[in-house]
Amino acid sequence: MPQVEIYTKAFCGFCFRAKHLLEAKGVAFEEYDITMGGEKRAEMIQRADGRMTVPQIFIGDRHIGGSDDLAMLEASGELDALLAD
Asked: For residues 85 and 2, is the Cβ–Cβ distance under 8 A?
């Protein structure tokens, strides 16, 4: 299974929803809390082509996007294939 990374902020409903979906599928992920900004926030913006909203989700080297993007991949059945690579 490829590495899954998610950039989040405290009290973010979209972040909670994305993490819940991943946890329900039994997917381990690395979470980076950027609530206070800093180095990880700058890293996220660079990796996400300038996007500043959270969550920003990466599976392997692929930028998935946010919570809605993750949910669409799940609904279409594409998420399992990405996680199986």
From this structure: yes
Runs of H (alpha helix) within the chain: 13-24, 39-47, 67-76, 78-84
- Phi (first) and psi of residue 8, to 5 degrees: -135, 170
Alpha-carbon distance of 51 to 28, in angstroms, equals 24
- Domain total for the chain? 1
In the numeric block, the tokens 């989040």 are attached to 8
Q: Please report, in tens digits, the pLDDT of each residue of the chain (85 residues total).
A: 899 999 999 999 999 999 999 999 999 999 999 999 999 999 999 999 999 999 999 999 999 999 999 999 999 999 999 999 7
Q: Show the domain range for 49.
A: 24-60
